[in-house]
Write a structure and sequence with these properties.
SRF-like, single chain, two-stranded antiparallel ribbon, mainly alpha, 295 residues, 7 helices
């Protein structure tokens, strides 16, 4: 069974008031004793009543004098820091009650203006409102607008976050496909493609892969050209008489000013000068009897 809440008012009945005093005094003494034991502090109690000629003290008269002497040695500011009398106590209670009343009035006013705002949205006129009412209504509307803007901002941030997460899940398979394609191209082409890695997201990843393929293709073409040049140089070294022929000066000819000799080359095949003139003097090393055998 729950204990009934006691109403803190003066008890007009003498016998009930005396019984309550004895009961509460005994409880107060017990609480002071528990406080000194549990918290290891110095405390005392002096209780005057109209029912006893001498005040009742706790723990003893000597203990009370010792605690009071210790209290008087403290500075005056420390003594009165938490000390209250009946007047100051009542003032503190009145101030606290006034703050609570002010807060409650503000809440009621805000609820009233909120109701007026919703009624105006349904078509009710605002002609009967005073200037104070209109100012309060504007303040309430501003507060609701701030909440709406904040909610819209949070929704947009959540949408952007969820969209970025979806794009991240879509980019991961695309990046894996790009890496597989790069490895396949590297196996068919040059071995340098094996080191190609997919970076970026979406179209940037595909563009990077295409640029890498174009670069590798150009690199392969340059390597092939260099290889062809090296093969041509080797062939020239194997046929020194060909280089002597190319570097020898042309012999004088009586009809030098009237006849022009033409040399034609096609790939690695060479055709002799046109005409039936004898050009044996232009060869420092005569060709073999069976003719030239070009590789």
């Amino acid at each position: 069974m729950t204990r009934k809440k006691v109403k803190l008012t003066y008890i007009t009945n003498d016998s009930a008031r005396k019984a309550t005093f004895k009961k509460r005094k005994k409880g107060l003494m017990k609480k002071v004793s528990e406080l000194t034991t549990l918290c290891d502090i110095d405390a005392c109690a002096i209780i005057y009543s109209p029912y006893d000629s001498q005040p009742e003290v706790w723990p003893s008269p000597l203990g009370v004098q010792r605690v009071l002497a210790q209290f008087k040695t403290m500075p005056e500011m420390e003594q009165s820091k938490k000390m209250v009398n009946q007047e100051s106590f009542l003032r503190q209670r009145i101030s606290k009650t006034q703050e609570q009343l002010k807060k409650q009035k503000k809440d009621n006013r805000e609820k009233e203006m909120t109701r007026v705002m919703f009624q105006s949205l349904t078509g009710k006129s605002l002609q009967g409102l005073t200037l104070t009412d209109l100012n309060d209504l504007g303040w309430v509307i501003d507060q609701h607008l701030k909440e709406i803007h904040l909610r819209m901002k949070n929704i947009k941030e959540e949408a952007v976050k969820s969209q970025s997460q979806v794009q991240g899940t879509q980019v991961a398979p695309a990046a894996a496909d790009n890496r597989m394609a790069a490895m396949k191209i590297g196996g068919e082409g040059s071995s340098s493609n094996m080191a190609m890695k997919s970076c970026g997201e979406g179209s940037s990843t595909q563009q990077a892969a295409l640029e890498r393929q174009a670069f590798d293709h150009m690199h392969n073409m340059e390597a092939m050209q260099l290889q062809m040049l090296q093969m041509a140089a080797q062939k020239q070294q194997q046929n020194p008489w060909f280089m002597d022929m190319m570097n020898a000066p042309p012999p004088p000819h009586p009809d030098h000013h009237h006849h022009h000799q033409h040399m034609a080359f096609t790939g690695e095949d060479m055709m002799l000068p046109f005409g039936d003139h004898n050009h044996s003097t232009m060869w420092p090393n005569p060709p073999p009897a069976g003719g030239f055998n070009f590789p």
